[in-house]
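Aggregate trends can hide what the representation actually does to any particular protein. For completeness, the protein is quoted in full, as a sequence line and a line of structure tokens.
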Amino acid sequence: MREQPSDRLLHVALAVFAIGLVATITMFAVPALDDGVRAPVWVYALTLGLPIGFVLAIVFALRSGRRRPGLHDDDSRGTR
């Protein structure tokens, strides 16, 4: 039998999303606070965590919400 899906993917998705969110805020805050100086290139690279974390969270939701075959069949209830 298959066990409950691990929450590890959700934790990774949330961590990657949070890193991307902080990087996005930093990308806009650095020029505003430092007289128009651009943020370092690695900040721009970390902003990719935002969509990657979002996609990972969607993958987790789809995997954890999938129904096991034969678990909730209409014929097994005895009513039609």
In short: The two ends are 29 Å apart (CA to CA). The chain has three helices and no strands. The longest helix spans residues 8-33.
